[in-house]
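Sequence in, structure out. Go.
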Amino acid sequence: MIKILIADDHPMIREGLKKTLRDEIDFKVVGEAKNGREVLSFVAENELSIVLMDLSMPELSGLEVLKELRRHRPKLPVLILSMHPEDRFGVRALRAGASGYLTKESAPLELVNAIRRIINGGKYITQSLADKIADEILIDSNQPPHKTLSDREYQILYMIAQGKSIMEISEALSLSLNTIHTYRTRLLEKMNMKSNAELTQYAIRNNLVEPTHPPA
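Output:
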């Protein structure tokens, strides 16, 4: 029996994933988690075959949870299910220890195959993500500024570039306003920039976000 933990802060997403897996007689959803800390707690107390986890969750992000799991349960496979395009966070998720990366949009069609491939010892990534990984390996030492950011700094850059306010970022990440201001200050220093508008323009120019929001 393949024992599955589903981790997502949206109940409707969790229900949708369970519905997708319902017809697989050897699959059993044994638990659900709505934030990163619940994932770590459930994993510590239960035997699992695989974790299906959102990238953006309260309290601890998916990337932070991945790093903790790699330390304490390094053999437990994790499939990331995210609303973010794979070219934005896929490589970072795999570097943090994920066994695969799947967008929520494609999950209904690909989820079962992805789980089976990972359970059998493989990785699940699309060809476009594989190509991006190859590009990352071949890149020279003159890395663009965003490549030097920590996962949390990159996440906050991404959210700023989406047009989110400091308050919205604070609430989404369950971090204090002072903490978000500190990260923003560090971002501006590392990127050698002076405003959110510059960060946004950089993110659009380097295809880190879609140009749907005008610079703040």
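Check: The mean pLDDT is 87. The chain has ten helices and five strands.
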